[in-house]
Amino acid sequence: MKLSKHILLAVAALAIIVSCKTKDEKIETPAKPNTLRNVYEDAFYIGTAINTFQIEETDSVMAKIVGNEFNSITAENIMKSMMIHPERDSFNYELADKFVALGEKYDMFIHGHTLIWHSQLSPWFQTIEDSLEFANATERHVKDIVTHYKGRINSWDVVNEALNEDGTLRKSVFLDKMGEDYLANAFKWAAEIDPKADLYYNDYNMTNADKRKGAIRLVQNILDKGIKVDGIGMQGHWHLDSPSIEDIEQSILDYASLGVKVAITELDVSVLPNPWDLQGAEISQNFENKEGMNPYKEKLPDSIQVKLANRYKDIFSLFLKHKDKISRVTFWGVSDGQSWLNGFPVRGRTNYPLLFDRELKPKAAYDSIIALKQRFDKQQPVK
Ligand code: XIL
Question: Which of 28, 143, 154, 175 has the highest count of CB atoms within 10 angstroms of its CB?
Answer without folding.
Answer: 154
